[in-house]
Amino acid sequence: MEKYLRVGVITSTHGVHGEVKVYPTTDDVRRFDYLKDVVLDTKKGYMELQVTGVKYFKNMVILRFKQFDNVDQVIPYKGMDLLVTRENAVPLEEGEYFIVDMVGCKIITDEGEDFGELVDVMQTGANDVYVVKTHEGKEVLLPAIDECVLEKNIENKVIKVHIMKGLLD
After folding, report:
1. How would residue 93 be classed by pLDDT, with cut points 50, 70 and 90?
2. What are the residue boundaries of the RimM N-terminal domain, all occurrences included (predicted)?
3. pTM, whole model, 2 decimals?
């Protein structure tokens, strides 16, 4: 399992005092209200940052960090991920999993057939949709509903599904 979970992506600077606009990639946007520490993935290593200010504007979060006090210091980090440790992640309910933990799971059918691998989860609003790459290289979209997803064993990286009639047509 991944050590870090992404909570946002720095999209641009904000003002001249080192604040950044962040596109949130978390289901709970208000989690930034109580977020004290984040990890910046600089692509060359990880940098620990302390959050000292949080504001919201439209669909963005504006963050200020203790380590930066001018715009020139944050410009190089545009487009980079903000991460949290699993200990600082939003607690999950029973039966909930982080997408990063599900990606890579082997997909087997209720008939015992090795169907493929989960490569992504699309969040559509109504229900999630699993993007499965078959062994033939084809992408299949499976609705994450009880009639289709029968069993999840994320620890063993296996998800059992029922291929509903018409899904592969």
Report:
1. confident
2. 7-87
3. 0.74
